[in-house]
Design goal:
Length: 81
């Protein structure tokens, strides 16, 4: 499973996703659009103009959606990780 998080510097929702992924034991690649404009351009080409965006394989989860994130990772709301 490949996880890519598009984030920006100072984004509180991005920080929450990073914390969740770490607590759940998942490794991910972070692509900070503030530090690298090419990452923002990658999102624009997909019709996405804001962060956070978490790609799990090819599925995009836009915004901070912990329940959708858990579901895409195969976790249930009651799973203790």
């Amino acid at each position: 499973m490949k996880i890519i998080l598009y984030s920006s510097t100072g984004c509180s929702f991005c920080a929450k996703i990073k914390k969740d992924l770490q607590e759940w034991g998942y490794e991910y690649e972070e692509r900070n659009v503030t530090e690298n404009e090419a990452f923002f351009n990658d999102l624009n080409e997909k019709g996405i103009y804001s962060v956070p965006v978490t790609f799990i394989d090819e599925k995009a989860i836009i915004g901070y959606r912990p329940n959708q994130l858990r579901e895409a990772l195969g976790l249930t709301a009651h799973t203790q990780v």
